Amino acid sequence: MKTIIIxxxxxxxxxxxxxxxxxxxxxxxxxxxxFFNERDFYEFINSNGxxxxxxxxxxxxxxxxxxxMPDAQxxxxxxxxKHKVYVVSAATEFPNSLREKYDWMAExxxxxxxxxxxxxxxxxxxxxxxxxxxxxxxxxxxQGETLLFxxxxxxxxxxYHRVYNWQEIHKYFFN
Length: 175
Ligand SMILES: [Mg+2]
Hints:
This protein is α/β, with parallel strands linked by helices.
């Protein structure tokens, strides 16, 4: 039995899809995820006088309405029956997100107990056997196995075991 630490945004919840929608609305563009396959996301977003999407993350409603990543519910449920699964989200930067994230988890992942759900600030204090996250800042301090969940803002990052979807995570644990 392993202790598995699972991130929320861009791992369980498709934050990137909503971020792109907001970016495109603000800038009257029609950029899609694949646009960032070989281009640095943050560099592009912060260039050319683009209107920033980030203030929207602080607005009520952003985190509460995100779509669930394909197959995440089924795979996390199966993992939670065999392993100790903790969902850990660096959320306190966005105070409005706290209630929304709690409600979102209760709606979409009701089998994850409140005891296994942590809303925190800095993940470097988190311990476990495996961490699944889309941000290097969280993976690089983790003292265990790390899985980098593919996202439009980490395409150029190397040196991590990259997984593209929840089917692959299922294979990683159940093969
Ligand atoms: Mg994330």
